[in-house]
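In this section we walk through a basic example: taking a raw amino acid sequence and producing a predicted 3D structure, encoded as discrete structure tokens. The instruction is simple. Fold the sequence below.
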Amino acid sequence: MELSAYIFHCQVSIALALVEHLFPHFGILQKMKQKKAAYQHCQGGCGSQGSESSGVS
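The resulting token sequence is shown next.
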């Protein structure tokens, strides 16, 4: 259960990063920049396990 919650958190972080990349002019997303570190950490943790969701790009 903890693993699935971790993967879900990763997917949310990746989604936020994608939205921030596509819409960098959103002022609210400027605050999300602080989560960039968490997103990068997420890539390292989920990259090996979330390969199925990686092909969405």
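Looking at the output, two observations stand out. The two ends are 26 Å apart (CA to CA). Residues 2-22 form the longest helix (21 residues). In the next section we compare this with other chains.
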